[in-house]
Give the backbone structure.
Amino acid sequence: MKFTALLLCLLVSPAGAASLTVFAASSLTDAFTEVGRAFDARTGHRTTFQFAGSQVLRTQLEGGARADVFASANDAQFTPLLGRVVVGREVFARNRLTLIAPAGSAKVRTLRDLTAPGVRLVVAAPNVPVGDYTRRMFAAVERSGTYGADFAARARRNVVSEEGNVRQVALKVSLGEADAAVVYASDVTPALKRTVRVVPLPTRFNQTAAYPVGVVRGSANADAAQAFVAFVKSEAGQAILRRWGFLRP
Amino acid sequence: MALGGLFAAFLLLPTLVLLTRGLNADFLTTLRSPAVTDALRVSLWTTGVTVLLTVLTGTPLAYLLARRAFPGRALLDALLDLPVVLPPVVAGLGLLLTFGRGGLLGPGLELAGVQLAFSPAAVVLAQLFTAAPFYLRAAKAGFAAVDRDAEAAALTDGAGRWGAFRFVTWPLAFPFLLEGLVLTWARALGEFGATILFAGSLQGQTRTVTLAIYSALDSDLGPALVLSAVMVVVAFTVLLTVRVLAARRAPP
C-alpha cells in the first residue's frame, strides 16, 4: 500500500510540472544550482544540471544528447549549434578573468611572476572557453610590451597541465599543486577563498566572457525550458548570478 | 541461441565500429600528426618504465609473499590487491594526497627538490599503482606453482640459492611472470583516471594515449578515432599473447 503510494508520487508529478535538463558551463556550477532551486520552488518543475566544459557539452549535444537548455561560457562553443541544435541565443551574464595562487605560497605575487622560472602554471585547454580567454589575455599582455615581447611563450613554457574545465583548474591550485592558474572571477567562491589568494590582474589585460543561453531544439518541455531562460534573465535570477560574482549581461 | 548471438554481437559491434571508423582514408596522415605521435611516444616510454619498475620491485615482493610465511601475510596480500578494485580516480586522489606538494610526503619531497605531480614521473606512478598488482598476482601464482623438489635438487647438486632461483625457479615461473607483465602493460596503457588527476594533461609531457583520446573528443574527432583504433588492435594483440602464454604454461 505504502509502496504503491510512493510509486504514484514518483510517476504522477503535479499538473504542468516538467523534468528539465540543463547543460551548463562548469563555471556556472554554484550559481545555476541555486538558480535551479529558486526556479523549481517558484514553478514546481524539477531541474537537473549537467555541468562540464562548454566544449564537452557541445560535443554531447551534437551527438544527440537529450537536454532542454544549453548555457555556454562563450560563443565559440554555442554559435555552431545555433539553428541546428539550439534555438535562440540570449546573453544572460558576463564574467572576468582572475589569477589565483595557493594561499600559503608566495611564489606568484604579480602577473610578471607567471613567467618566472620554475613556476607551475595550470590553465584550461585552448578549446575550453576559459582556456581561450586565458590565451587572449596572455596575447594582450604581450602586445602591451609591459613584461617583454615573449611573455605568452614564457608563460606557456611554465604550463604543467591543460585541464578540461575551469573547476579542475581551480582545484589544482586549491590543493596547492599548482603555483598559479587563470580562472573566472566568479570561480573564487567562498569555499575556494579558504585555500587560494587572488593575484591582481590589471583590467587593461582582462577579457570579458559572455554567456549565451538557448533552448535545445526538440526539447520535450520547450515551454518550461523557455521559462527557465526567462527566469535566468529575470531580476530574481540575475540577483543570484550577481551574488556568485557574475556581471550584468 | 538467438539471445546468445545477440549478446555476442553487442560485445563485438562497438569495437568493430571503432576499427572501421578509425582505419579510414586519413589514418596515416592523422597517425603522423603531432597530437597522435606525442601521445604514442609518452605512452610507450612511460609504460616501458612502469613495466621495468614492476619487474624489478614486484618480483622479489611476489617471491616473498609466495614462499615466506609471516604474521599478517594474508592481510598484506589482500591489501596489495586493493588498487586492482579501487576506482582509478580514487587511486589518483590517493596519489595526489600522498605525493603531491600539499600531500603527506610533499614537504619532504619538496626539500629534496622533487616535484612529482604533473610530471611524467607522476604518469609512471599512476600506472605503477594501478597496474603492478596484476603482475604481483601472476608472479605469486607462478612462484607457488614451481615444483619445490626441483629447487631442492638444484641446491643438493651444489647450486647456490641465487643459482637455484636463476636457473630453476625463474624459468619455471617465467610463463606466469610474462603473462602478468603483459596484463600490467595493458592496464598501464589504458590508465586514465589516476593519470588525469595526479599527472594532469599536457601534450608531449603527460598526455598519454587515453588522455589524448579524451581531450581530442572535445574538438577534433580524427585523432581520437585513430588512437582508438590503435588501442583496439593493441588490446587484441595483448589478449592473444596472454592466451598463447597461458596455453604454454598449462600442464601437458
In short: The interface with chain A takes residues 96, 100-102, 106, 115, 117-119, 199-203, 205-206, 214-215, 217-219 of chain B (CB under 8 Å).
